[in-house]
Amino acid sequence: MIALQGRGGDRWSIGGIKFFIDGTVEGGTAWLETPDIHGENTESVWRDRAAYAARIARFHAAGIPTATHAIGERGIRFVVDTLAALPAGGPQHRIEHIESVARDVIDRLGAAGIAASMQPTHCTHYTRADGSDDWSQRLGETRAHRAWCTRDVRDAGAILALGSDFPVAPFNPLEIMADAQLRRPAGSPAVEPVLPEQGLTAREALEGYTTQPGAAIGERTGRLAVGEPASFAVLDVDPLAAAPDALAAGRVLLTVSEGLVTHRG
What is the pTM of this model? Predict the structure, then answer.
């Protein structure tokens, strides 16, 4: 894997390593501090947890960024502790998903410079404010009230990249940016928001799809300026001024990737 770093071709390249520390709450394979209501979600994918830390340290020393899938609170805490203990400097590491976790772990994540990659539509499409969904039922009220705490992540000073986890959840970036603000499905005003206090501002949602994803992999992206890569999209709606529901209904008129037109609406 180390030898493959930097290999690439026409508009693709290899950069980074992805790990899994646990599975999913609904599948009973996440790594929680205590079991869910079915007695599940208690184990790490890594039976030898020291081996995970050793491999992370090896890639860190080689200058290779890592991403770790971590969903359960115990798994997230373990990954944050592992990454925070690495020598200062080096590549940018990130955690994928971060579904339910205590605030002290989020604060530690921010202080350690670890990036968070989160999917707002996992919250808005698959959980409900009344806690009647399977995810919330399995976790119980206390843990369900830590659902995708994007506001806490930003307030902790952490990098926050937004995404879809497609094909698990819908792909449309404008809808996801809207959901990140609304904490409910865009276009469904009658649906009660899930933890609305965790909503992002319009600018933060836009950053989540522009500058923050680049920062999450240690790169500078998402800026329109002389000398920057000519990668941008033209929309028929202003993502900073439009109401979130209107943003979700917007259209992409043009996409340019490093100077090449890849889409015309």
Answer: 0.95
